[in-house]
Amino acid sequence: MGLLTVVAALGVAELAAGLLRTVSPVFAVGDTVVDITPPALVEVAIDLLGSADKVVLVSGIAVVLLGVGAVLGVVALRRPRVGYAGLAVFTAVGLAAVLPHRAADPVTPVPVITGAVAGAVALALLLRSANASLLPQGTGSSTAPADAEEVPRSSTTGTSGRGPGRRGFVLTAAGVLAVSGSAGVLGRRLPALGGGAGSRSSLALPNAADPLPPLPAADLGIPGLTPFTTSNQDFYRIDTALTLPRLDADRWTLRVRGMVDEPLEIDMDELLGMELVEADITLTCVSNQVGGDLAGNTRWLGLPLADPLRRAGVRSGADQILSTSDDGWTCGTPTEVVMDGRDALLAVGMGGEPLPHAHGYPARMVVPGLYGFVSATRWVTDIKLTRFADEQAYWAQRGWAVRAPIKTMSRVDVPAPPSRVATGDVVLAGVAWAQHRGVDAVEVRVDDGGWQVAELAEVSGIDTWVQWVAETSVEPGQHSVEARATDTTGFTQPSERVDPAPDGATGWHRVQFTGE
Ligand SMILES: Nc1nc2c(c(=O)[nH]1)N[C@H]1C(S)=C(S)[C@@H](COP(=O)(O)O)O[C@H]1N2
Ligand SMILES: [Mo]
Predict the structure, then answer these.
(1) What ranges do the domains of the chain cover?
(2) Does the C-beta of 31 come closer than 6 Å to ligand 1?
(3) Top-level CATH class of 253-398?
(4) 491 in ligand 1 pocket by Cβ < 6 Å?
(5) The model's pTM
(6) Is the dihedral of CA 304, 309, 313, 317 positive or negative?
(7) Which of 96, 123, 172, 474 is close enough to 515 for a disulfide, judged by CB 3.0 to 4.6 Å?
(8) Per-residue three-class SS string for 332-353
């Protein structure tokens, strides 16, 4: 009974949230848990669980809610008021989570209240039929005569477990489960169903004013080596969003405001009508460990971000571009980086398609050379020119760096551990990046021996990673390979191991393999 009350409340709340396109109470509680958990603990969780962190968090919340619900249900059988009081406490927790939520809007409390009412109705129905089933046969059940043939059986067992009330309870329970379960599933699906004019499938991207030539020999095609171009499907994803924002391009606008001469707002029609450019840019997450895979490269299509900023007229002193996504995440980017002529984009296309929802549909920022957390706002809807001294973005508030250029890095992909390779000639290969400086050289060494210069694939610019390859020969037994990159400023990545926080990991990636 307690479980079903919780299911009813949550299911109906999800349906209401889906219909109203507002914050889901369960996910809002999840966000609150993340927000009030000490950042160090959140990092431990992310380290341990990787991208399963969100599933674990949301399932954990569901398990706690169902557990508490089950206990309250047992108590409520004798003392119904406890059940309703528990529901009231759940409601208060839900409201406390959704009201201050960063993506809250005026209708945000409605799903919580609707869920609470549904829970109360379910509890009332269940209590009524549960009480009927617990009553001794024939005393409380008005349906007893119709089921008279069952009475002798239950009286021989000495319990009322098979009485008519029990069947009633099971039917009521099944009804509650079916209705609230489908409400919940439908609620979670609703945002994906909208297929209107602004939907991703009907958005037609224009061509770039000056399309890039096809890629040169950027891909060496070595088995096991990370492809030069990452498919949208395989592109890594890092975000604070427990639920994927699903925006409609028709309703999307971007405001540019703050320390500007003339605030402005552009919509998608205007944006797609402007001169768009293409650029190959490798995105990297600051949380990437040495050898990690939180990096991806693709061809982006978008408006140079400097255009609308110039049109609005950036006032002097506005050293920070504070961008906000539809889900309330904020990001602080140095104004001078965006205005210095590099391909800083308000991107609408990724890998020849509109941005996938997961990667910011309908528009996001991409700034070559800066880690994603200070540059790559997805679902961006607001840009405010301000000062670093006046306002701090989401991760800066949590102790991460304010300015975070991507560090020069190389990774060994081949051989992949735990790899057994034939002795004799062995191929070593990987990728290296130093966005917006460009990789000048990659060196590898086996078993702490001498450094050997690797061969680099051809890339068209300084904003992408580059594949590297080298050959060596090894004897049978255990070996290790290490790589280090030097960028075009002459800087060689240091061997010193530094953790990702606060501004990116350093160290040489080392991979073990066995020759046999
Ligand atoms: N709205 C929003 N945008 C965001 C983030 C986020 O949590 N929310 N994470 C940022 C971080 S930390 C990174 S590394 C990049 C990753 O972009 P991707 O998921 O498209 O690869 O998005 C950035 N943009
Ligand atoms: Mo990131």
Answers:
(1) 2-193, 253-398, 409-515
(2) no
(3) alpha beta
(4) no
(5) 0.81
(6) negative
(7) 474
(8) EEEHHHHCCCCCCEEEEEECCE
